[in-house]
Amino acid sequence: MNEPLPAPNILGALWRYRLSSLGIVVGTVLVSVVVALTVGSAGVAEARIVLKAPDSAQALGFEITSESGFVRYVNQRALFVTSDRTLGTARERLGGQETIKELREAVTARASDNGDSILVRVDIGDAERSTEIANAVVAAYQRESRAEVSAAADKALKALRNRREQLVADIAESGSGVDSASSRTISELDQRITEIRIASGQFGDGVSFVDKAVTDSSGVITALLRDAVVGFAVGVLLAATVAWARADRNRRVRDAADLARLSDEPLLGEVEALGEGETARLHNLVVPPLGSYRLVSSVLRNTVRGGLVAVTGVSAGDGATTTVLQVAGAAARDGLRVLVVDAAVRTRELSHNVALQNDWYGMAPIATGAATVHASTRVIEVGPGIEFRVIPAGRASEGAPDYFRSSLLRRAMVEARGGYDLVLVDLPPLESAPEVSALVPAADGVVLTVRKERSVAALRRARERIELLGGKIAGYVFTFASQSSPTGAQHNEQQGETQGRVSATTVHRGGQ
């Protein structure tokens, strides 16, 4: 069918690339926290100056007649906080470590949102030093403000006293005595002098109270948590995007339905993923084959009429060798004459499974003309009266595969198929063992095992390689499928059939 696969699922993509996705998320969170610590407010201190309303201190130079006037007054006082006069006094209190320029850059003052106070903020880079500077600036403001009020009061009092003295001198010079108008004027001046003294004393430095400078550690923690949460959200979004893009470029065969979409050849069977203990049973030839492999054996015999079947995987680890042994066991139990050939002369995995890994005879010497099929055939008994024959990989020196002769391989396969109902050839992935590629066109059909999550690109390369070699794909076996596969029920039934775990008996004898 070769239909395109549906777009990858985001959650599935994240799970497939979980390590890299986790790295992206953790990295984004760490960057967010580092940025928060670098440009955050960990070294900032804030103090508050609550001002008095100078309602009765008009003579002191302040005239507040409305709420907007008071707001303007607070803004003016905020500017006074950062004046050179105030900062110079603060610098003296601090011991002169910072210059006026440094203090001007570090200290800011503004009217609060409700307009009744001044917020002094200091960021010198160190929380403790920022606190010291903020408290020194507040104290300097109080001192300079008190001096300013005192100077304004003295100036007003001096003017009133001069006027009173001048009035008294004028009365004495005229010699007319103090009349009622002069007496009233002198009384008003005395009253005004008294009011200014009282007002200046009450107003003082113009500060109602002060909140000492503190660093907001809870605010820092809150900011860090907020930035970490934002970083986590951004990291998840970024990881999902990257994982989805990677999954879209590297499509995988997720289930048997995907495999059916990608190929025109039939799906011979679906083998579920097994636990570690259950997997060991697959290599014990005395244990009857898994139900899903029995199904593959039945379907295969109806699909390939000639009897010579090459089995290979898309990549190493796709279960080709296990499929050969399981199908061979199932066919032998059905009464068929079965021959198994281990053509993976480099790894000899099948030979290891039947305890023939040390046999000198086998495919390697056959391919170099040093042995015959008849001399290399061995009998494997898997039960009372049940057996199949094996041609092991044989022993070969290093570099021997380079001297394999394709004509000898093909001739051996023609000879092998003569006396058997089914010949199963275990081929390694062709990309890793090109020396056995001559067996592909010699086979009546090629069975390709495809592991779950195998790359679609790798599957297509394997198909193209088989077709270029002149082979015909007979079908696919989907391995390591989900446990919820329908074949899981068959496996559970199979577990109850036998509890024996004995090794297969290997009988070494030549011929058939």
TrEMBL record:
Region (Disordered) residue spans: 484-512
Pfam families assigned to the protein according to its UniProt record, in alphabetical order: CBP_BcsQ
InterPro entries linked to this entry: Bact_polysacc_biosynth/exp, Cellulose_synthase_operon_BcsQ, P-loop_NTPase
Alphabetically ordered keywords of this record: Membrane, Transmembrane, Transmembrane helix
Transmembrane regions: 20-45
Polar residues bias spans: 484-506
Superkingdom as given in the UniProt entry: Bacteria
SUPFAM superfamilies: P-loop containing nucleoside triphosphate hydrolases
Protein name per the record: CobQ/CobB/MinD/ParA nucleotide binding domain-containing protein
Organism of origin: Actinopolyspora alba
